Amino acid sequence: MSDPKKLFIRTYGCQMNVYDSERMAEALGGAGYVGTDSADDADMILLNTCHIREKAAEKVYSELGRMKELKTARPDLKIGVAGCVAQAEGAEIIRRQPAVDLVFGPQTYHRLPEMMVRADSGEKVIDTDFPAEDKFEALKDRPKARRAPSAFLTVQEGCDKFCAFCVVPYTRGVEISRPPERILAEARDLVERGVREITLLGQNVNAYHGPGEGGDWSLARLIRALAEVDGLERIRFTTSHPNDMTDDLIAAHGEVEKLMPYLHLPVQSGSDRILKRMNRQHSAEAYIRLIERIRAARPDILISGDFIVGFPEETAEDFEATMDLIRAVNYGQAFSFKYSPRPGTPAAERAQVDPAEASDRLARLQALINEQAAGVMAGMVGREVGVLFEKPGRMDGQMVGKSDYLHAVHVSGADVAPGDLRRVRITGAGPNSLAGALA
Ligand code: 5AD
Ligand code: SF4
User: Fold this and answer.
1) Residues of the chain whose pLDDT is less than 70?
2) Ligand closest to the CA atom of residue 306
3) CATH number, residue 43
4) DSSP string, 193-206
5) Claim to verify: residue 346 and residue 388 sit in the same structural domain
6) Closest Cα to residue 435, out of 390, 399, 392?
7) Can you give the pTM of this predicted structure?
């Protein structure tokens, strides 16, 4: 028998891409590939790409330039481009970088083994279909490998909201929810491999409406069913839209012990004028009231968000409204981006904000968020929290894990192993992590 071929995958962008890359590795594992950490000795390189902002997409082309040199030295090397840039640009990628052998979107990676056969015979393969068959089903009988304590599980994909800045509805397609019974089976399988925490993924995860027993299940119903899975200790979900934050989901935060007190709920802007132009379909006030209701159900919940600054026509006054909203909410964490025009989306055609002004606003917004996040972390000192340990830290005898609130926590000299869930008293807060001791 010949040696197994080596596969190198580089993943860009969101957590769903991380999940998809794992599925690609499993699909190719069945076709005789083993993973490698280095592009230099790989027989096959896959770039799993992100199209959400222009910078993310441009990075792919510069990386492909480097990969081409590897291929000049080793002509048998196969190069594939997967994910949302592949979906959006298709054949254009091979036109710009002829060293690429395969281009395939987020909905077709279960077909990788057959694509590889075609690529091996010298064909350029492009597959950006939205096929009728289900990639999740095609990949369910995967090898039983041991897993890290925390795993992602895609439950919903795509988006029908069409925010004016966003490419997701075009690259990931319409909103589709997986049936709850398949999700529960995948969760049980993950637990058997050592997983104790599952983060449910979807571009619009709280719009989940999977066809199950007795009709469509809501995300809250799915979470309550997952909470019954023995050995699964923690449940999280991301990313949510404010308009799909239903009463039963809010209530679950107060009632389901395994559901962690952390909610990523992007608002993008605090100006009603901009929210309208973004097609967000809610006001700043409605968002703030929603946060109040969520905090009434779970007072200690940590709120996280996403913000876009410099959206077309954003004035200094609009930006101040965003700062006011941030002050009203007090975020434990947030991601913020300068608006990036995406071809084919409505906002790309509108009057753009001066880039220097946008950079200035972004810096001010990030300073405020950092101040709030540091305050939330400092408030953890003296408290006892759950920590799921994941791996050894950089220091001798140190272990690192994640708190209930998703903060990294370092504990030294304790007898704990990856996968242990323990109570920890927080003793100190640094800029990026907390320190603690077993309680
Ligand atoms: N420009 C800048 N940021 C964007 N996002 C989505 N599209 C764009 C864009 N065109 C941000 C939003 C979203 C996050 C995943 O990325 O804040 O919530
Ligand atoms: Fe994009 Fe999220 Fe808006 Fe959907 S809800 S269009 S994924 S920003």
Assistant:
1) 1-2, 141-144
2) 1
3) 3.40.50.12160
4) TT--EEEEE-TTGG
5) no
6) 399
7) 0.94
